[in-house]
Amino acid sequence: MNAFVPLETSIFAPDFTLDPYPWLEDLYYRDDVLGFSSEGMNFCFRYQDCRDLISAHKNVSREPPDTSDSDMAAFAEKYPARAWGFQYLLTDMKAKAILARFIQEMLNRISLEQFKSVFQSFEKPGVHSEYLRDLSHLPMKSIMQAWGFRYDDKLIDDHYEYSVALVKSFDNYGEDSLMAAGDAGMAENIRYCREQFNSAEPGTLLHDFAREIRASGIEDDYGVGCLVSLVQSTPNTLSISNTLMLRNMLRYRDKVSVLREDPSLVCADVITEFLRRDNHVKALARQVHDDFKLRGSALRRGDSLYIFYPGVNLDPTHWDNPLELSFDRQFTHDNHNIFGGSRYSCIGSRIALKYFSELVPLILEYLPVTAEVSSEDIRVEGDWITERVITNLPILVPEH
């Protein structure tokens, strides 16, 4: 078996980023291949293989194979922020339970009403292309405002860069410069969250969270770790999916028309279907800890491979009419991987569902039904898989 066959384009090709299905369509049905290779990396792209990799938590994980205590000490000295994260990032169950309760309260407070100006410009005829930065800031702004974080536009831009650098380092173990950049980004996240935790203003959700952490006898850094997990994950997740959501609302106008007629139909399954069709998660690395077999192919300790999520979410052996945007699909924890699967479930899933349930009706309210986008005008940039983002999505609104 040739486990990984060469992809007939680059994983970084814009056309592949925006629509990978034509390159994968035939591979789904080939039992003689496990995945594809591109740019020196190996990718699994089928739904069931993704589930099996996530379930094989004793054999694979995002971290490298176990090392000796002396190796870990050297790692901690070289990358202190990452080592801090191993200790404090969502590792205290009491702190994590408190965070879960406060996330629910945050969801009750999230609103995009005050950010309508981002969308009101769409009502005017012409070509709109200057809105992307404001749109990408909305997730962080709405979440930070709900918590009571202090922020400005530059800070949100900076935290996007920190977040991308960290995820990029996950995918490049052994690349010292990328590991160092990821560690530096995480250090800035920790510094910011610790500062906010220690100086939260009374009456804010953040102040109440810090007070409850301390009242429970939990070390401050475990509470700070909860905030770091929130701040470092939002910029390169929801912020990128924003634009992909908008693109799909434009290219599936007939499907979206039912939501225009009745916005109350926007529900968790509708949002999940949008995210299945396309979202920010392009690929995540997995490191093999112990030898095992996947689809009959031997994977060895020390191997590195990636789960290619757009392929997983378009697998025709699992999804009927995978290229269609179908609001009739019903999602359960066990039939999709949009927010993880098996033992793993994304802590941000409820945040994503709430945020997009606010975003979609606003877009429907202000984006004219005649608005369109030319695929030739879309630009994709980013020199790593985790930062392949749409940087130009000009929307044409015709004259009435």
How large, in whole angstroms, is the Cα Rg?
21 Å
Q: Determine the CATH superfamily.
A: Cytochrome P450
CATH class: Mainly Alpha
List the total number of helices: 17
In which range does the helix fraction lie? 40-55%
Please list the strands of the largest sheet in the order they lie side by side: 1-2-3-9-6-4
**Count of the domains:** 1
Q: What about the largest sheet? A: 6 strands, mixed
CATH fold-level name: Cytochrome p450
- CATH architecture label name: Orthogonal Bundle
The beta-strand count equals 14
First-residue to last-residue Cα separation:
59 Å
Low-confidence stretches: none
Strand content: 5-15%
Going by helix content, strand content and strand pairing, the class is alpha+beta
What does the average pLDDT come to?
90
> Which of globular, elongated, flat, extended, rod-shaped describes the shape?
globular
Could you outline the blueprint of secondary structure elements for this entry?
Layout: E1 4-6, H1 14-18, H2 21-24, E2 35-38, E3 41-44, H3 47-55, E4 60-61, H4 69-78, H5 80-88, H6 93-109, H7 117-120, E5 126-128, H8 132-147, H9 153-170, H10 176-198, H11 205-215, H12 220-233, H13 238-251, H14 253-261, H15 268-277, E6 283-288, E7 292-294, E8 297-299, E9 304-308, H16 309-312, E10 340-341, E11 344-345, H17 349-366, E12 379-381, E13 389-392, E14 395-397
Parallel strand pairs: 1-2, 3-9
Antiparallel strand pairs: 2-3, 4-6, 5-14, 6-9, 7-8, 10-11, 12-13
Helix pairs in contact: 4-5, 6-11, 8-13, 9-10, 10-12, 13-17
